[in-house]
Specification:
With about 160 residues, the protein is an all-alpha fold. It is about 65% helix and about 0% strand. The chain contains nine helices and no strands. It starts with 12 loop residues before the first helix and ends with a helix.
Length: about 160
């Protein structure tokens, strides 16, 4: 783990992915995941919060809990980890989460700054650009569409 990302080992790929997610985890990301990405976002938020339990995450998870009836146990697990209390119903899972979490501080991670997704007028403009790029693609092909993307606001989001 100490050699990541210079040396990758396939069986640890999930561990790397979780560590990257944890490095990006903050209140804004938890808010976004629990509000804008359906049940999958709530599950992912709860999973990451269980590995990096922080008090500000609890309210977002409590609000989202009822939207994931099949996965409330995972939200409850994250909440118990945030509260620092044991729960006999998820005791086995708590033990596993804590064992994995104990390995994470040795992981050389750095905070990852995520790009914010546009909202309002900026999002409306991107949708117009998307339609224009699609029209260029249909008319002139992929290379012209890529040129169009590079000169559009999409280039910042797609890092082209």
């Amino acid at each position: 783990m100490s050699q990541f990302p210079d040396v990758l080992y396939e069986p640890l790929e999930m561990h790397y992915a979780v560590s990257k997610g944890i490095a990006a985890l903050n209140e804004k990301l938890i808010s976004d995941l629990t509000s804008n990405f359906g049940w999958g976002g709530v599950v992912y938020a709860a999973f990451l919060a269980a590995f990096r339990p922080m008090t500000p995450f609890a309210d977002y998870l409590r609000i989202a809990r009822n939207r994931v009836p099949q996965n409330q146990w995972l939200v409850d697990l994250a909440l118990r980890e945030i509260e620092g209390c044991a729960d006999p119903e998820v005791d086995g899972h708590q033990s596993l989460i804590r064992a994995i979490r104990a390995t994470l501080p040795t992981y050389p991670g750095e905070h990852i700054h995520l790009r914010e997704w546009p909202i309002g007028e900026e999002l409306a403009q991107l949708n117009l650009e998307k339609d224009a790029i699609a029209a260029v693609y249909r008319k002139n092909g992929a290379s012209e569409a890529i040129s169009e993307i590079k000169s559009s606001p999409w280039s910042k989001l797609l890092m082209i």
